[in-house]
Prior knowledge:
Layout: E1 11-18, E2 24-31, E3 37-43, E4 50-52, E5 58-60, H1 63-73, H2 81-97, E6 102-104, H3 105-119, H4 121-131, H5 137-150
Amino acid sequence: MKCPFCGHEESKVIDSRESKKGISIRRRRECIACGRRFTTYEKIEEIPYMIVKKDGSRQLFDRQKLLRGLLKACEKRPIPVSKFEEIVEEVESKLQERPEKEMKASEIGEMVMARLKDLDKVAYVRFASVYREFRDVLEFKQELESLLREK
């Protein structure tokens, strides 16, 4: 495995662990040349999963895109990155369980919002405002009021 710091071609594995859902293997490595440590993930290559967008178009599922959206919604919130990875893994495993290997973007959005609602209300509202495309302050206010009623 090529070192991301010095580019050396050899590294040794220090620790290997299966991810919580068993989707990937996390390997902690150390570069033979510079001694710096880095993490790699090993996954089985499978059939690509498709996301059906609102307009009916299809695009490949991109876990990094989903993770970036979560990070943006949760910016400056006290949520560990491991929680985002759990959410992304949960979505990915739901997609893998489906025989047709497709999922509507709306299903993913609802799944993520349900998890964020339990995790952090502010992050939930941020994500919902983008996902549901709030057009004005009134829609934002209605979402906040429904959250307050649930308490």
